[in-house]
Design brief:
The complex is a heterodimer of chains A (447) and B (390). Chain A is α/β, with parallel strands linked by helices. In chain A, 20% of the residues lie in helices and 22% in strands. Chain B is built from 16 helices and one strand. The chains are: A alpha/beta (447), B mainly alpha (390).
């Protein structure tokens, strides 16, 4: 029997600009980028120098603090450039891809027939370990830990997000194999969250504890799944991983090749061709997005948690969504009047938008106001399904009060759990950045 | 619209960073943002944001206050003419009230916003919109004949001591508007209580007493109004507190827009009703009580400042309890203590002001216990977990 989770608090934003359910091979990305900033708190040590030749699966850099946290190249080719910023901090590593990819051979391994340490060693030594993220703190998993459970959410409830069933349907075999490998990493369970409404193959995946999820966003967030099943306590470790990355692990075990294929969905009203594209991890944005509208913002990820990237930039390592929406750098006369501009969504009832629950909105990046002191109370709780006092936790993070943060449940959350709080907030405070900052304080003070 | 925008950008030019009037930017920005929602786009975190902002929220409260304010102006004039034995037309009554009240509002806004702007410039932050509500509330809870200099002094006290001393908007412990009223009440008691101040220019009339219902009850006099009159509010009292009907209209707007906490309003009413019922039952328990304790409980809900206080003052999110459970407790305690103070305090026959201020002080304590509850749950989970694994 699957575990059933039904969320009541939250908010599903219905936005225009959905992608059609069709998939196409993207134009080959001439270069790919690996950006250390995609792996929070990772300080890279380079293995290769500029000009080095490498195969797909060759190590490019590793973490200064743990040489088992390795990032490997998604393509074969030449290490073209190591871009550095202030204090020679490595910003990105650009690899020029060969026309025909060649792969490093890791050998075939059947995870079910291997023991835990063999599987773990294989995953971390071949650079698959960076797909695993650790809770608390949302940082790369530490190879020395044994997590109490591993969570995978194959149901993304965020606005305009990718449909994992659609992405995974051709990779079911690899996905299952990846799951088999993951079960060897934990003493506990491997949880898989799926959409309760759909009747897909994901419900037949074996060796997992199935969670059927229903309710508004953030029902599908990993944080919600963890909170409803095995909430985090002090000192505990849980790992999370994205579904498509599970399939990459499964394929690598089955074929010995690191095939860093990434299915990216292009969404948002300012994007012209809205559908799924097959490309490679860290691909050039320009290899996928063609002639989007002027004065628009490209987001690697969804509108709530994604990262703003430039037209000539690269997709985030973990991201499988490119959202393009118009910039909102326009003035609105008397826009602050209640019940005016009802075409802009509001979770509060000071706009009449609540009268049309099924309306889809065209959104832009306007802040719709200015940052103010925290005045309004009660609105954060409406979009916070976790048993967390959001405002009190935010204040504890702002104050850097370690004991209070711990008491109020900082270990149970990551920034994305506060994305809706940030979206609906009247005072326009940057909740995700505040939580991230709080987590960083905990990393240095508690570890 | 574009040319207005261009004109404003032109005016703002010298205030831009690097130019000589840079430090006055918060002031000019505050004025500008009243015309236009700025073109600021999201820089960090969520790329899209809700349409609501603090300005919209505060304006909603101001809108909710309008019915009570309009009624207050009319009633101020009406009570004035009636004591003279004249039956005024609607316009006459309204104009007399407006003549008294509009200058108070002007003084309140001018002094208060002046201070707010000064602090924003001094501290280099944008002007918060909270005073839009406070500035209107202050005159609305004053007696109609209060001298303007007293309004100004109360405003200065409320903004400086009640708010800015604690760090400005969002940080204050006490409701600023009630701080203003409490200041006026304790600093100038002769202007703020008694039976000659509640009706405009009553002191110039010898024969007729314009005291409030609660005042007459405290003096063990008969009340010449029925419940319907008390509800509609054609009675003497502070400017906007009299009409429970108009306040209810405002409350409806606050609750429907979720700007005001229905939890506080509802639990406050329930608390007051409970205390009223208890006091009404005193005679059956062999205690004699007084005119106020024997006043029917439902009348307690519609006279005096209770309705206005519970709807517009107790729901101030900054000074109220901030947790959901805390709001229930906070509201209920306000209701209970308001009626208790009102009936059993011989010095002053109204309790809502003091009860809200009292609970403002205790709100952080209420929250503390609610938060402790959440913390304990988490600690217990950890304990049971470690017991299991041990």
């Amino acid at each position: 029997m699957p575990i059933d989770i039904k969320i009541k608090k939250g908010l599903t934003l219905k936005l225009k600009g959905e992608a059609e359910n069709s998939i196409e091979q993207a134009q080959k990305s001439k270069t790919v980028a690996l950006r250390p900033s995609n792996f929070h708190s990772l300080v890279p040590k380079m293995v290769l120098k500029e000009g080095a030749k490498l195969k797909a699966g060759d190590e490019v850099f590793f973490s200064k603090y743990s040489d088992k946290t390795r990032v490997v190249s998604p393509v074969s080719g030449t290490l073209k450039e190591i871009k550095r910023g202030a204090k020679r901090k490595i910003l990105s590593v650009i690899i020029e891809a060969d026309d025909e990819l060649s792969y490093k051979d890791f050998g075939v391994m059947d995870p079910l027939k291997s023991n835990s340490s063999e599987v773990k060693d294989r995953i971390f030594s071949s650079g698959l370990g960076v797909f695993l993220n650790q809770r608390p703190y949302n940082i790369p998993a530490d190879a020395e830990d044994t997590p109490k459970a591993i969570y995978i959410s194959a149901y993304d409830t965020a606005p305009l997000s990718a449909d994992y069933e659609f992405i995974l349907k051709d990779k079911a075999e690899f996905f299952q194999n990846g799951i088999n490998a993951l079960t060897k990493l934990t003493g506990g369970k491997v949880y898989l969250g799926v959409d309760k409404q759909s009747a897909s193959f994901l419900k037949d995946i074996e060796n997992v504890e199935l969670i059927t999820v229903s309710g508004p966003h953030p029902a599908g967030n990993v944080g919600t799944l963890i909170h409803e099943t095995e909430p985090m306590n002090r000192g505990e470790r849980v790992w999370t991983i994205n579904p498509e990355d599970v399939a990459i692990i499964g394929e690598q075990f089955k074929t010995g090749k690191y095939n860093a294929e990434r299915t990216v969905v292009v969404t948002g009203t300012a994007a012209k061709h809205r559908k799924y594209f097959k490309t490679i991890i860290g691909a050039e944005v320009s290899s996928i997005l063609k002639d989007q509208e002027d004065n628009s913002r490209i987001i690697s990820g969804n509108v709530l948690t994604g990262e703003k990237i430039e037209e000539d930039g690269y997709i985030n390592f973990f991201s499988n969504t490119l959202t393009v929406i118009p910039e909102g750098n326009e003035y609105r006369m008397f826009g602050w009047l209640p019940f005016k501009d009802n075409d802009i969504h509001s979770a509060s009832k000071t706009s009449l938008s609540w009268l049309f629950p099924n309306k889809k909105y065209e959104v832009n990046t306007n802040l719709n106001g200015e940052e103010r002191a925290l005045v309004v109370t009660g609105e954060m709780e409406e979009v916070m399904p976790l048993d967390i006092l959001p405002m009190q936790l935010i204040k504890a993070c702002m104050a850097g009060d370690i004991e209070k943060m711990e008491n109020l449940g900082i270990y149970e959350v990551v920034p994305e759990d506060f994305a809706l709080v940030e979206y609906t907030n009247t005072s326009k405070i940057e909740a995700q950045a505040i939580i991230r900052n709080g987590l960083d304080i905990m990393i240095t003070e508690v570890g | 619209m574009n040319w207005i925008r261009q004109k404003i950008d032109q005016i703002k030019e010298p205030f831009e960073p690097g130019n000589k009037l840079e430090k006055y930017r918060p002031a000019i920005n505050a004025l500008d943002t009243f015309l236009f929602v700025p073109d600021h786009t999201t820089k960090k975190g969520a790329h899209i944001r809700d349409a609501v902002d603090l300005k919209r929220t505060m304006i909603t409260v101001v809108l909710a206050l309008i019915p009570a304010l309009i009624f207050g102006m009319w009633n101020g004039g009406y009570q004035h003419y009636v004591q003279l034995g004249v039956e005024p037309t609607f316009l006459e009554a309204f104009l007399h009230g407006a003549y008294k009240i509009v200058p108070m509002i002007v003084v309140s806004y001018a002094v208060g916003l002046g201070l707010e702007f000064a602090f924003a410039i001094m501290r280099g932050h944008e002007v918060n919109e909270g005073y839009l509500v406070t500035g209107l509330l202050i005159p609305m809870i004053m007696p109609i004949d209060i001298p303007l200099w007293m309004v100004a002094l109360s405003v200065i006290f409320a903004v400086l001591i009640g708010k800015e001393a604690f760090g400005g908007t969002g940080m204050n412990i006490l409701n600023p508007a009630l701080t203003a009223r409490a200041f006026a009440f304790f600093a100038y008691p002769t202007y703020m209580s008694g039976n000659k101040i509640w009706v405009s220019e009553a002191s110039t009339v010898d024969t007729i007493s314009g005291e409030t219902i609660l005042g007459s009850l405290a003096a063990n006099k008969e009340v010449g109004y029925n419940t319907a009159e008390m509800f509609t509010g054609v009675i003497p009292g502070s400017i906007a507190e009299t009409s429970t009907l108009c306040i209810a209209v405002g409350a409806l707007l606050l609750v429907l827009t979720k700007v005001g906490s229905w939890r506080i309003i509802l639990s406050g009413i329930l608390g007051a009703a409970a205390m009223g019922l208890l006091l009404n039952a005193l005679p059956s328990m062999g205690v004699e009580g007084n005119g106020l304790t024997n006043f029917p409980w439902y009348n307690h809900l519609v006279v005096g400042g209770f309705a206005f206080g519970i709807v517009f003052m107790a729901t101030d999110p900054v000074s109220a309890a901030q947790t959901m459970k805390g709001k229930w407790i906070y509201g209920a305690l306000i209701g209970l203590t308001a009626i208790l103070i009102r009936t059993l305090n011989p010095a002053y026959p109204e309790g809502i002001m003091l009860s809200i201020l009292l609970l403002n002080v205790f709100a952080p304590t209420i929250d503390h216990y609610v938060i402790e509850g959440n913390i304990k749950k988490r600690k217990k989970r950890l304990e049971t977990k470690s017991v299991k694994t041990a």
